[in-house]
Specification:
alpha+beta; three-stranded antiparallel β-sheet; 39% helix
């Protein structure tokens, strides 16, 4: 599960319900451009709140989980 480092330091604080594009990019360790491309091609879902684009943590997690696996030895069922 994706953990938001900015909010995990506050004890007892509720996790965020949504991320901005900038927060989603930072949490996923991707560029803003990568996030916008994923939104444009439909592989990442977002919602609009006025002019703001917001991304639910579950949608970001689903996007990350749907990325292709790295074709290294470990992911190919090797030794």
């Amino acid at each position: 599960m994706i953990e938001n480092e900015e909010h995990s330091d506050r004890k007892g604080a509720a996790p965020p319900l949504a991320y901005s594009v900038e927060e989603a990019a930072k949490i996923a360790r991707l560029s803003r451009s990568s996030i916008y491309l994923a939104l444009r091609d439909g592989s990442l879902t977002a919602r609009k709140a006025g002019r703001r684009t917001i991304i639910c943590p579950s949608d970001l997690q689903q996007f990350i989980d749907g990325l292709p696996l790295f074709p290294g030895r470990a992911s190919a069922g090797g030794e």
